[in-house]
Amino acid sequence: MQLFKKNSSSVVAPDFRRQALTSISLTGWLVVITSIAFMALTGCTHKKEGAVATAKRDMSVRRTDQFQAAATNQKKAVVVGGKIIVLLDLQTNERSRITLSGSPALIDVANCADGSFVALDFYRKVWVSDSNATNWKSQNISGDWRPLALTCDSQNRIWVAGSFSTIASSTDHGASWKTTDFKEDAMFNTIQFVDDKHGFITGEFGTFYRTTDGGLTWQAANKILGDFYPYAALFISPNDGYISGLTGAMLTTKNAGKTWEKLESPSALSQFGLAKQGGDVYSVGINGSFLKLENQTWQPVRHTAGDAPFLRAVLPLGADRLLIAGASGTLRIVQLASADKKAGNK
After folding, report:
1. Pick from 156, 157, 121, 155: which is nearest to 141 by CA?
2. What span, in angstroms and rounded, lies between the C-alpha atoms of 97 and 228?
3. What are the contacts of 31-36 at 24+ separation with CB within 8 A?
4. Helices 29-42, 16-25: inter-axial angle, 10-degree rounding
5. What b/e readout covers 27-40, taking b as 16+ CB neighbours within 10 angstroms?
6. What is the mean pLDDT of the chain?
7. Phi first, then psi: what are they for 158, rounded to 5°?
8. What number does CATH give the domain 15-238+250-263?
9. CB neighbour class for 141 (10 Å; exposed up to 12, middle 13-18, buried from 19)
10. Annotated domain spans of the chain
11. Confidence check: pLDDT of 24 > 70
């Protein structure tokens, strides 16, 4: 597996979720290749699993870090990638670096209603921590499938979605799991709850599911346009949502996915993360792109991480800040007012 592959003149970000499906399909060979690539990024130690924290701020981020996701409980922010967790204290602005032992490959992270955190390991595990996010414990996910996305709902239940149209949920911090197979040959890439009852799943081939009873049942909805392959999804209400896909495709719905409308994206750069800050929606993606939705068109926002091969995480912090993170150890806090001013936005 190449960490970066060429597509015309652009560099394409390593989409670990998409690589997962490819790995599963090719009789195990790419599973080995994927594993080797992850070990190259995250190290090859095989100690008893646990977490070792270092509190030196200047060493919290390294150029070899490949960040995949971020979450916050408004006191701490957690950024994950490979076997690395970077912890930001939002009161003191101090940073610390946590290295998980063994060979985990963290690809997603979420915060729960009680303030705790849960991170998703590509190798069928979750790592759970309390609200301080300093001590992490791994729990196995049952089944023979690849987890690719996770969320934590308002009842502190962990939800994981992944290959073979499979989801799993846990009510005891990952100690046990209830698994559901939707019997489709599709990979689920995103899962999200917007309140106690309403949740959404998106997957390849335009697959789209929703729940209106807190996950007790899931209903297949209309396929997203054109066998859409989603990189990221963001629902901001039970009806309103956004998704990003291949070659910069960006769609929005106002009716819970019954219909989708194309949004203009002049950059045509694939976007891997979506977030709402205040009344605005932002995205991050390939070539360090950072976009803001204005009048149904995605416009670039200037920032100091433009040299990153890709950005994957975008996270609201407070009233006017966003955390963005991605390849080559990129982790920045963007002040939105100054960023909009530099970009000429009003």
Report:
1. 121
2. 37
3. 33/1, 34/1, 36/1
4. 150
5. eeebbebbbebbee
6. 84
7. -90, 135
8. 2.130.10.10
9. buried
10. 15-238+250-263, 264-346
11. no
